[in-house]
Amino acid sequence: MTEAFWEELYQARDRVWSGKPNRFLVDVVEPLTPGTALDLGCAEGADAVWLAGRGWKVTAVDVSPTALRRAEAAAEGLGISFERHDLGETFPEGTYDLVSAQFLQSPVEFPREEVLRRAAAAVAPGGLLLVVEHASAPPWSGMGGDVRLPTAAETLAGLRLEDGAWTVERADAPERETTGPEGQTATVADNVIAVKRVNSPG
Predict the structure, then answer these.
(1) What SS3 state is found at 107?
(2) Could you tell me the sign of the dihedral formed by the alpha carbons of 118, 98, 81, 4, in that order?
(3) DSSP secondary-structure letter at 22?
(4) Would strands 81-84 and 57-62 be described as parallel, antiparallel, or unpaired?
(5) Domain Methyltransferase: where (predicted)?
């Protein structure tokens, strides 16, 4: 079901996303020394391309073969490793200096908290987990009042991080202006959670 949903989304349009890296990824990661990075839900590859262009050795994953083909085309010559995973079932091997989960939210059933905990487990000592997620939705999103998005504190608590093994670098919900399909605008908020591992997992 997960692959079918995202395949339908990507096959319906020649391009779904802007091709620009996510702004909070740039804000948080730009000052860091490049190392190894894992991009979860890489979509059409903008974040992975941005990271690789700054010297990161990137592994990028998505469930949609169409999205991965577009990402591979955008990343030609950059040495990015692409893998297809339904993260509810399989997860990339290894540990990384940066694990990035940008808007890893889905309208279809998805064990998100479990996946984010696996993301935390994939962070190497001294490495960073960066989670950016929708904290509110614009009126044209189709999300009714029954849809409740998490707070940054709730997502942070759901990671179940080991006491003393992590420092919280950031956990807030900045606002931004967004533009809808008909040119309409709205103010929305995004949760930004950045946590750094300070020692090996217990």
Answers:
(1) coil
(2) positive
(3) P
(4) parallel
(5) 38-127
Single pTM value for the model:
0.88
Task: Note the pLDDT tens digit of each residue in 83-108.
Answer: 999 898 999 999 999 999 998 887 77
Nearest CA to 41 among 85, 95, 79, 96? 85
The model's pLDDT over 108-132, given as tens digits with 9 standing for 90+, comes to 778 989 999 999 999 999 999 999 9
Look up tokens 């073969």; give the residue: 65
Structure token pair of residue 74? 């955008």
Task: Give 1: exposed, middle or buried? Use CB within 10 Å, 0-12, 13-18, 19+.
Answer: exposed
The C-alpha atoms of residue 142 and residue 56 are separated, in whole angstroms, by: 37
- Give the domains, in start order, of the chain with CATH numbers: 2-197 (3.40.50.150)
